[in-house]
Amino acid sequence: MLAVIGGSGVYDLEDADQREIIEVETPFGRASGPVHKTRIDQTDVLFLARHGRGHVYSPTSVPYRANVFALRKLGATHLISLSAVGSLRDELPPRSLVTPDQIIDRTVHRQHTFFESGVVAHVGLAEPFCTCLRASLGEAAALANHPARGGGTYLCIEGPQFSTRAESQLYRSWGATVIGMTAMPEARLAREAGLCFAMLAMVTDYDVWHDAEEDVSVEVVTSNLRANTQAAHAIIRQVVAGGLPERECKCASSLEQAIMTEPDRIPDDAKNWIRVLTGRSLEAV
Hints:
The longest helix has 25 residues, at 218-242. The chain has one domain (2-284): Nucleoside phosphorylase domain (Rossmann fold), CATH 3.40.50. It is globular, with a radius of gyration of 18 Å. The chain is built from six helices and 13 strands. The relative contact order is 0.19. Helices cover 27% and strands 22% of the residues. It is an alpha/beta fold. Strands 1, 2, 5, 6, 7, 8, 9, 10, 11, 12 and 13 form an eleven-stranded mixed β-sheet that branches.
């Protein structure tokens, strides 16, 4: 099942037939809001607004663990993140779309893992986005007449403030492509949950490095979000129409051999939520 997390400006799936609104309790607290189980072209899709109804969660305060866990608990196997970003490259002007393949994490105040108390696991994150789902997302963007640049590095900052000019120039020198505030820990948690994860990064501005452009502000971001949101809706519909890719990747098996804690040392409540993440008993992981 496909799940979609909508970022700034994307608070629902336009034109989808709403079927059910689900409040989900998780061992990691409540999600940002209810999960909307909708139907697009006879296919069930889960949707969750990352920042909550009315945009009440800052990038740091988003309950990332609860969000990812809730979607996994409801049966998600694939997760697409819709995220507003700033461009760090001349060739990516506002309203460009990108499907990044790498992340640099500069966040410092967030809970980055499900495995932090009573059970320890180390999953691989060399490729933070699923190659199969990224390819499917790129193909859908082209078919929807909203082509996206494939590849690139997403620089994730803590926020909620935008960068200083010196920071923006530093990130450019690192080779980063776009800058945002929410890819981490979302990508980390999606991997721990065995989800295929990809992002449609929607450029709203040039951050503050571009001397010939207006510095980033809420007004600049908002005006470009509207156009990007329409493109995102069309692309998601095309993803659904094309069908989800076969799980030939290793995302689903990310926890195999990853849990280091001895089984008899793992608390019973942890065994229960691990079973949700893996879809099977701890002994089979």
